[in-house]
Amino acid sequence: MAMKVVALAGNPNVGKTTVFNSLTGMRQHVGNWPGVTVEKKEGVFEYKGEKFLVVDLPGTYSLTAHSIDELVARNFLLNGNPDVVVNVVDATSLLRNLLLTMEIFEMGLKNVVIALNKIDLAEKKGIRIDPLKMSKALGVPVVAMSAKEGIGIEELKDKIYEMAQGRIKTNPVVPRYDPEVEREIEHITNSLKGTKLERRYPLRWLAIKLLQRDDEVMKLVLRHIGEERLREIMTHIGEAEARYGRAMDLIIASQKYEFIDRLTHEFMSYVGKEKESLTDQLDRILIHPVYGFIALAMVFYAVFKFIFALGLPLQEWLDGLFASFGEWLAPQIANETLRGLLVDGIIGGVGSVLSFFPLVFLLFFALSILEDVGYMARVAALMEGIMRKFGLPGKSVIPLVLGLGCNVPAVMATRTLEDERERLVTMLVSPFIPCSARLSVISFLAGAFFGSNHSIVALSVYLIAILVALLSAWLVGRFVVKGEESPFVIELPEYLIPSWKTVVTHSWERSKEFVKKAGTIILLGAIAIWYLSNYPVEIGSGKSYAEKLGYLFEPYMRLMGLDWKAAVSLLFGIIAKENVISTYGVIYGTTEAIKNAMTPLQAYVLAVVTTLYIPCIATIGAIRAESNWKWALFTTAYMIAVASIVGILIWHAGVALGLA
Amino acid sequence: MGKLEEVLDLINSGVTQEMEIAKRLGLAKEEVSDIIKILENLGYVEKVEAGSKTCESCPLKKVCYGSCLKPTGVVAYRIRENVQEKG
């Protein structure tokens, strides 16, 4: 006697495979569905002397031909003549799962058993489902089970057996739609009546699939009624969609969902809310429109405190180490030029930058912890609303956050923004976000000039930079590149305890670039600065190339309270922002000398201007590569203008307040 | 208007978090997640799963640390006369 065929249908991740394994045990065969590379699993079980062949259909959310999986599942249900269809549904997500059930019912299948899986988890979540009432409401048998725990398997086998024997009478409930949709269904079914289709398929189901513009059904119907009649049907559907202002597939899904929602009231209730998770509790504060920003300010203040508290002593120690090394090396080299190049140029320049490695490492360490914990996703979610207010797409928050590390990947990440306007605006504002190179400048100046207030000062520079970025986005979006923005949804991960190994690895991976840069571009920059400072005559005479170059820009720098040395530093900073520090290192030699040469107000202006004034060469190159020269040059010119305005404002405000 | 349409409209208007959608519509967060899955299956929103190939090669991976979701921009309706066309 031929085996009875049981089809297992259900949404993905509802435990269908566990049900399949529980039914068939080891008696399984895995192959492919004919003509496609979709896995086909079959297994056999025996119950009360009857053998059953269980076919595990691909997990699908619906039976519209959206994917090959859906097509395979649908074709088997329509043409495979299963004796019993077991629809596995997840009791914890019943509304969504029953959408597929309704589709199965609409296909005219009556031999359906509902396997109400994960009933134990539903109970834990406070969801109470009465299987008897559910069975009555749906018109088919329902077996409450937990396949994972082995609960309900025997009852399911029994129901399959009874169904296969024809001992169970069913009356599957069929969703009803609003009058307009029902009229469309009727119009289509009338058009299909009398065709061969009527003998093979439920016309109501075909009508619904045509309303949903199902490709396969459209082709099938075309073969039977011809192009003209099908065109008339589709035009009719289009007119109905125009009246709704929505696509019919959405209307049908929505009304089906509402139908199920009403239906579940007959057998499902919530006895108590599941205890709010720690993630939800934390998110109540951390993404709150007011408390969220207070928390953000506190978190980043703590980050700077942490960086400075641990990093500054290490930076000073390293700075001293390079200075001592220079002092030790100097007497060993007889040649004055070589001594100058090695001690003042290379050790003074590169050493002054390298000494900031602890701060950069600690910045990445702190950011990695925040990322691994899941907080950076909250920052993105929190900032998204603000971004949108300033005309930036919500999605741009991610390139901007990346910019905290380095502006080059931030500019490259703008390619994930589909809209050209959004891309250009985000590309323009991302270089305003202080990268790790600028952190070294900010932390050097904050540490040297502001004593115990260094964290607040550094944080204020970051805040100015973010504010300038947002205002620039608004200005550019309003006057330069106009257009509509598109929304973005961020899915927030659960909060997790970070893996220290991952955090340290990430931090090292990111900060080693800083060391690599010190050995290449900063080294070359330091040599160049040394050369320009010592030729044709030593600095201090007013005739060195560096001084001549600096004096050229000094009148402009004076507007911001800065001198020619700042001009030279900023010029070299275009190659890499760390060069601002190394230039001062080469020119002054020691931190103490720098401290004596500037006031705190001048240092603050320099920190802000360095942060805002121009992207480094690598970032300009990235902007050109991602857009064009025109936009790269516009960004450069715009940033110089903004930095000048902000620098002049801060300087004059400081002078007016008596801080000079 | 049904819940599916309400959720889709909120996503299209830029409401960015499931929790916020749930709060605005008075729904459980789990139900909103389910509705988003339905909309995703219908092609109205697109989800990039964490750990998928797309996710792995995404330049935003380092700061994203999760799945992402976006509206696909599928239009509300389209009167089509060409029966072979699907969109």
Short description:
Chain A is α/β, with parallel strands linked by helices and 660 residues long. Chain A is 64% helix and 8% strand. Chain A contains 30 helices and 10 strands.
Can you describe this structure?
- By secondary structure, chain A is α/β, with parallel strands linked by helices.
- Chain A has three domains: 4-164, 3-Layer(aba) Sandwich (Rossmann fold), CATH 3.40.50; 179-270, Helix Hairpins, CATH 1.10.287; 291-488 and 504-656, no CATH class.
- Helices cover 64% and strands 8% of the residues of chain A.
- Chain A is built from 30 helices and ten strands.
- In chain A, the strands form two sheets. Chain A has a seven-stranded mixed beta sheet, with helices on both faces. In chain A, strands 7-9 form a two-stranded antiparallel ribbon.
- In chain A, a hairpin with a 6-residue loop joins β2 (28-32) and β3 (39-47).
- The longest helix of chain A is centred in the middle third of the chain and has 39 residues, at 291-329.
- The radius of gyration of chain A is 35 Å and the shape is elongated.
- With 87 residues, chain B is mostly helical.
- Chain B has one domain (3-71): Orthogonal Bundle (Arc Repressor Mutant, subunit A), CATH 1.10.10.10.
- Chain B is 46% helix and 9% strand.
- Chain B contains five helices and two strands.
- Chain B has helices at residues 3-12, 18-25, 29-42, 53-56, 61-64; strands spanning 45-48, 68-71.
- Chain B has a two-stranded antiparallel sheet with strand order 1-2.
- In chain B, α1 (3-12) crosses α3 and α2 (18-25) crosses α3.
- The longest helix of chain B has 14 residues, at 29-42.
- At the A-B interface, α3, α10, α11, α16 and α17 of A face α1, α3, α5 and β2 of B.
- β10 (489-490) of chain A pairs antiparallel with β2 (68-71) of chain B.
